Amino acid sequence: MHFTFEDPINTSILLYFKAGFAIFRKPYVESQHSYERRSDLIITFAEKEYILELKVWRGEKYHEEGLSQLAAYLDSRNQTTGYLAIFNFNKNKEFTSSWNEINKKQIFEVRV
Fold it and tell me: Which of 84, 24, 23, 64 lies closest to 48 in space, CA to CA?
């Protein structure tokens, strides 16, 4: 297992979701859904899965790879909709949100 800059962000958000969903009956949050295939967060709530990928902004190429990676995760879970959160630590950044269609998957993206 290797450590990346995104790991502390993932851990913080995972803890937030676990605490937030603790008020509901049987919340479930996971991060690994098959051998060597890993997404950052899969939240099962009310019998529906919400798949979230968390990335740190490292340029457009890395962004495109993140979208493709999430589309593959969605495919492996037979899902059509996913969520991508991109954390940009640059000084001059834009806060945006948009829907993307990648390989017939709908991905809602936010950049913060």
Answer: 24
Nearest to 66, CA basis, from 78, 79, 50, 51 = 51
Residue ranges of the domains in the chain?
6-111
H helices of the chain, where? 6-21, 60-76
For the chain, what is the total number of helices (H) and then of strands (E)?
2, 6
Tell me which fold the domain 6-111 belongs to.
Answer: Trna Endonuclease; Chain: A, domain 1 (3.40.1350)
Least confident of 35-49, 57-71, 79-93, 94-108: 35-49
pLDDT digits (tens, 9 = 90+) for 32-69: 544 444 556 787 777 788 888 888 899 999 999 999 99
The pTM of this model reads 0.72
Q: Are strands 81-87 and 96-102 parallel, antiparallel or unpaired?
A: unpaired
